[in-house]
Amino acid sequence: MSPAPKDAQKPYVAYQGVAGAYSEAAAAKACPNFETIPCDQFETAFQSVENRIADLAILPIENSLGGSIHRNYDLLLRHNLHIIGEVLLPVHHCLMALPGVRLESVRRVISHPQALAQCEQTLTKLGLNAACEAFDDTAGAAEQISLYNLQDTAAIASARAAKIYNLEILANGIQDDSRNFTRFVVLSRDPVDPRADRPFKTSVVFALENGTSSLFKALSAFEARKINLSKIESRPHKNFPIRLVETVKRFEYVFFAEFEASMAEVRTQEAMAELKEYSSFFRVLGCYPMDIASESASNEG
């Protein structure tokens, strides 16, 4: 599936998946006045913004149980888009099948690998004698059952997906942990103006001139200015994957860091200037408002 041509009068937001996907729900929450464009791949969503088919894209970046979506970290580095917002979405999984199918007759469960992992214990407790198979996305798994009339197969997806594809919910809320949230980022061709009058978050990516041995010194730029570093993620440095130090070969990394401060603040500008001193590569991915309401909800859950 590729992005369809859009009405020039309407703003559009691209997401990966089909109707009923959690990404579609995140798009509706983050961009309530936008039309949505489903894309078959994460990269297609990036490209749809770059090619002006969509105005924005929304992509999952991490899950509270499953961890980071590494593919999208790599795509953030490959494409020149800006993070302009974030949204945290509670994930509520359901087990669904064709109408009339009984739980004990299910021989296969299909869904996204993370959804399967997030429901593993509950599926065991349900006593299913079924093999789990990975699918591209949760709603796509539900669509597959409906499209091909799969009588022995159930999907893990959202309640909205069950409604869209005329499936019956066999079990509701089957995630192993109710504190299951996915964090999405909103991407645009242009950055937003950083402000200091409300909580902002900044995302950067950098590679270190002297490799990982200087990481502690680089991170001291945040500590010295009391900037809360909320996340750091390392990925292989694909342009320079190996560093030879004397006779030892060492892997090289780029680091994705997020911190709770705005680029409009003097302390952030000073920290970034110091970080650049240690870096062979540095880029600001975005400075954007924090999703305070959703974070509060997450803490309550």
From TrEMBL:
ACT domain mapped to chain residues: 203-289
GO annotations of cellular component type: chloroplast stroma
Gene Ontology molecular function, alphabetical: arogenate dehydratase activity; prephenate dehydratase activity
Pathway membership: Amino-acid biosynthesis; L-phenylalanine biosynthesis; L-phenylalanine from L-arogenate: step 1/1; Amino-acid biosynthesis; L-phenylalanine biosynthesis; phenylpyruvate from prephenate: step 1/1
Gene3D superfamilies, A to Z: 3.30.70.260, Periplasmic binding protein-like II
GO biological process: L-phenylalanine biosynthetic process
Protein name (Swiss-Prot/TrEMBL): Arogenate dehydratase
Species this protein is from: Cucurbita moschata (Winter crookneck squash)
Designated gene of the protein: LOC111443909
